[in-house]
Amino acid sequence: MSDTASPLDAFIAGLPKAELHVHHVGSASPRIVAELAARHPDSKVPTDPAALAEYFSFRDFAHFIEVYLSVVDLIRDAEDVRLLTYEVARDMVRQNIRYAELTVTPYSSVRRGIPDRAFVEAIEDARKAAEAEFGIVLRWCFDIPGEAGLASAEETARIATELQPDGLVSFGLGGPEIGVPRPQFKPYFDRARAAGLHSAPHAGETTGPQTIWDALRELGAERIGHGTSATQDPRLLDHLAEHRIPLEVCPTSNIATRAVATLDEHPVKEMVAAGVLVTINSDDPPMFGTDLNTEYAVAARLLQLDEGGLAQLARNAVEASFLDAPGKAKLTAEIDSYLAGWQR
Ligand SMILES: [Zn+2]
């Protein structure tokens, strides 16, 4: 990608960052997929890195879904879940990601036969080990896979509220938006919010601004996943800016899924110009051939940011996070001292 040639790359690589929109299975890098495939020799996923790199070059979106599902099929027991989670944390640490809210879809694993408690214990084990060994803080957003219907919503709300692991901070909704209206999920979000979880659904990625209004009004959204179509409605932009409701913007993902035609046409500039709190994220990074550092480089180009502007993007993510106040203050101070050290 041409953005990797930017002179700001070294600054971005060392910048302490927070990531708010990144999917658990969608973060499985070829290295991790190779390890999982080696545990399940009967799968058709290749195990050597060269063949895997080839496997991960997507012909089109349908091919991407096919590969994604073949990776899902490698997560068969609690040890697979633990390994995936821990290794994703390792990949994040290499990019200086200090805090991440990982979107986890327990329904997919539970439906495939992993008991709910074993699943939750596996991610919690990995979270604690990663924090102790790498110093990264992980939190969870349990999301409803919208395409799986209300049964998946019921099951996700049940697991979130009955098992409510320490790392769980929010409740989400993903999958396709077309034909999956947000308001039907209101009762499940009500239950999750009553249990103290924050609301962070995807909305306005592939449908118009009404979906974002629905997420705000019906699901009590405190943060919006993507929100790409917000710029089609000036009143909505004003509302987001006034109420300081952050958008989790994932530029390269929007191109890969054709939500936006080209990076240069990405509406992130209009979002920032309207005063909306914008955060930059990677979504399903290895699947889209990106990582958070690359997304920061893309944002620097689109928004014409220097080091100070990039540090502000990192601070935005901390502000928009569901981290507690001392955690936010600590990470913001790290960002500030990194910037000050760089400018000396
Ligand atoms: Zn997403």
Automatic annotation (TrEMBL):
It comes from the Bacteria. Residues 16-337 form the Adenosine deaminase domain. Its cofactor is Zn(2+). The keyword Signal does not apply. CDD domains: ADA. InterPro entries: A_deaminase_dom (IPR001365), Ado/ade_deaminase (IPR006330), Metal_Hydrolase (IPR032466). Keywords: Hydrolase, Metal-binding, Zinc. SUPFAM superfamilies: Metallo-dependent hydrolases. Transmembrane segments: none annotated. Pfam families: A_deaminase (PF00962). GO terms for molecular function: deaminase activity; hydrolase activity, acting on carbon-nitrogen (but not peptide) bonds, in cyclic amidines; metal ion binding. Signal peptide: none annotated. PANTHER family: ADENINE DEAMINASE. Belongs to the metallo-dependent hydrolases superfamily. Adenosine and AMP deaminases family. This is Aminodeoxyfutalosine deaminase. It comes from Actinacidiphila glaucinigra.
